[in-house]
Automatic annotation (TrEMBL):
SUPFAM superfamilies: D-aminoacid aminotransferase-like PLP-dependent enzymes (SSF56752)
GO molecular function, one term: L-isoleucine-2-oxoglutarate transaminase activity
Family classification: Belongs to the class-IV pyridoxal-phosphate-dependent aminotransferase family.
Listed cofactors: pyridoxal 5'-phosphate
Pathway(s) it belongs to: Amino-acid biosynthesis; L-isoleucine biosynthesis; L-isoleucine from 2-oxobutanoate: step 4/4; Amino-acid biosynthesis; L-leucine biosynthesis; L-leucine from 3-methyl-2-oxobutanoate: step 4/4; Amino-acid biosynthesis; L-valine biosynthesis; L-valine from pyruvate: step 4/4
Alphabetical GO biological process terms: isoleucine biosynthetic process; L-leucine biosynthetic process; L-valine biosynthetic process
Pfam families: Aminotran_4
Gene giving rise to this polypeptide: ilvE
Enzymatic reactions: L-leucine + 2-oxoglutarate = 4-methyl-2-oxopentanoate + L-glutamate; L-isoleucine + 2-oxoglutarate = (S)-3-methyl-2-oxopentanoate + L-glutamate; L-valine + 2-oxoglutarate = 3-methyl-2-oxobutanoate + L-glutamate
Name this protein carries in UniProt: Branched-chain-amino-acid aminotransferase
PROSITE patterns xrefs: AA_TRANSFER_CLASS_4 (PS00770)
Length: 295
């Protein structure tokens, strides 16, 4: 992935893709002091760009550092890197981290860097599996207590357990893993929030120890516009037996139906289909029209 054509925005300049490097003594590599964003570019526009740039700022502040560019500058840089790479649809990845001036836990003298890359990226899950619903297993690791980790930050270090769980799931033929939280309630996938449906009502976990995703909030708004009731509450894993539909949401995952979590089964039902369509209609009306035309 590091040897491609194209450009990456690095500390204020566009540099050739293969030259966007950092030193092995970067604090971020040793101590996890990096925060990032994941954004999608749809038909030339980055969806909810400013919300992402603001979240990047907030994520850094939670880790006790400041991104040395304003939200407006980050917005402009994200657009610039998409343009420089000739992208109309794609994925945008800003990342901010502590540099290599000082080695040790303390990072008072380390510079803060910002890089933004963008590339073409289709469906996060296999498109066919996506329509049938993806299969998930239960993860072993749990989302940590907010007293244990900076759970409100989209911090690189918090993904360590997500990668372990994603690998564990993939090894057994599953698409993703469902993580519980430290209390044992249903939390989220390794890179997406979760919704469950019964009797026409959507239930989703309280985001009190994991990311309150931008897609999650968008889908809650879309559901309410449709007149569906949405309940945010603690959900016990054994309650999964009561739900008929399930889907996950995220910038990369968009709205992806789930057919299976552990011993529980779900159908790709009307509410899930409606919200998948509403989401595509919102972010990329041209794709929605193409899907409709194809039947
Ligand atoms: N949870 C985790 C762990 C994630 O990585 C993501 C993706 N950023 C989400 C939830 C969903 O967030 P968003 O909708 O803002 O992409």
């Amino acid at each position: 992935f590091d040897q491609r054509d194209g450009f990456i925005w690095l500390d204020g300049k566009l540099v050739p893709w293969a030259d966007a490097k950092l030193h092995v003594l970067s604090h971020a590599l040793h101590y996890g002091s990096a925060v990032f964003e994941g954004e999608r570019l749809y038909d030339g526009e980055i969806f909810k760009l400013t919300e992402h740039s603001e979240r990047l700022h907030k994520s850094a502040e939670i880790l006790d550092f400041q991104v040395p560019y304003s939200v407006e500058e980050i917005d402009a840089a994200c657009r610039e890197v998409c343009e420089a790479n000739g992208l109309i649809n794609g994925y945008v990845r800003p990342i901010a981290w502590r540099g290599s001036e000082q080695m040790g836990v303390s990072a008072q003298n380390n510079s803060i860097h910002l890089a933004i890359a963008a590339w073409e990226w289709g469906s996060y899950f296999d498109p066919a599996a996506r329509l049938k619903g993806i299969r998930m297993k239960f993860a072993k690791y749990r989302r940590p207590d907010p007293a244990t980790a900076p759970v409100r930050s989209k911090a690189a270090g918090l993904y360590m357990i997500c990668t372990i769980e994603k690998h564990g799931a993939e090894r057994e033929g599953y698409a993703d893993a469902l993580m519980l939280d430290w209390r044992g309630y249903v939390a989220e996938g390794t890179g997406a929030n979760i919704f469950l449906i019964k009797d026409g009502v959507l239930h989703t976990p309280n985001p009190d120890c994991f990311l309150d995703g931008i897609t999650r909030r968008t889908v809650i708004d879309l559901a309410k516009k449709r007149g569906y009731e949405v309940i945010e509450r603690h959900i016990k894993p054994e309650e999964l037996a009561d739900f008929s539909e399930c889907f996950i949401t995220g910038t990369a995952a968009e709205v992806t139906p789930v057919s299976e979590i552990g011993e529980y089964r779900f159908e790709v039902g009307d509410i899930t289909k409606t919200l998948m369509e509403d989401y595509i209609n919102l972010v990329q009306p041209q794709r929605a029209a193409a899907v409709a035309a194809a039947g």
